[in-house]
Design brief:
The protein is 76% helix and 0% strand. The protein is mainly α and 314 residues long. The chain has one domain: MetI-like fold, CATH 1.10.3720.10. Helix 5 packs antiparallel against helix 6. The termini are close together.
Amino acid sequence: MTKYLIRRFLTSLLVILGVATLVFFLLRAVPGDPLGAMLAEVDPTAAEELRRKLGLDQPVYVQYVLWLGRLLQGDMGNSLYGSNVSVSRIIGEAVPRTLSLTFLSTIVALAIALPAGILSALRKNSLVDYFFTFFAFLGLSMPDFWLGVLLIIVFAVNLRWLPAIGYAPLSEGLWPWFSHLLLPAIATGTGFSAIIARMTRSAMLEVLKADYIKVAHAKGLRNQVVILRHALRNALIPVVTVMGIAFALLMSGAVIVENVFAIKGLGRVLIQGILNRDYPLVQGAILLVSTIFVFSNLLVDILYTIIDPRIQYD
């Protein structure tokens, strides 16, 4: 297991480096440069001076070597906008917002999906199953931004129970933090809950046919023990896979929902960097996103061995 983790870790670093390199050169392969977004009317002298100041006058391979050297020292560079603020600072301010939204969205998704999936499997082809199947298709078909707007209209505008937009850090208190994130968490978590619920149902149906489930019932174990301890645990392998993908997608930024609720998370930062042609900011954000995806897959592999000890890696 240790050798496997070391090998996966080193491979992950190579994948992240490959993604960072690809993004670096693709950004510069697109026609134009940041000067077009920064200067309404480009004066040749001012443009040349600004290009030299930003280091854009050097060959691309020289820019890459310099950027990679700073990156290995933990320096992502400075944003081309915002008074030369460091990319690490911008991303550092955005990550807690996205992480908080991802955390609550995951809780919402699991709170809906696991009971729905289990009950659908236990009551196959019944009204309960049909109800949760309808709910799953409804959740998949509803755009998260549309659901977010509805939640704002109902709970923020009409009932005035929760704030409509913005983000409050946890340092301001648990309730302000929770109240600002509840509506966007429901908007993003509902769609993922539908996917996880269908996956849980399918996995549970397969497990419930297994011989060891029949043996467990024959031994006189309570139905709750059989379902939760034996059936659900063995059905979690595909569910954990989907949850890992969902977590990585949410951490990479629920861009539309963040815009609807005016939360300046990682997704909004990335979109802003792309629109402004802010090379350092886009490179830093995508580097973080690729790191999240790679290590989420590694975490899922580790969880496999915890859920099912029979799974071993060489």
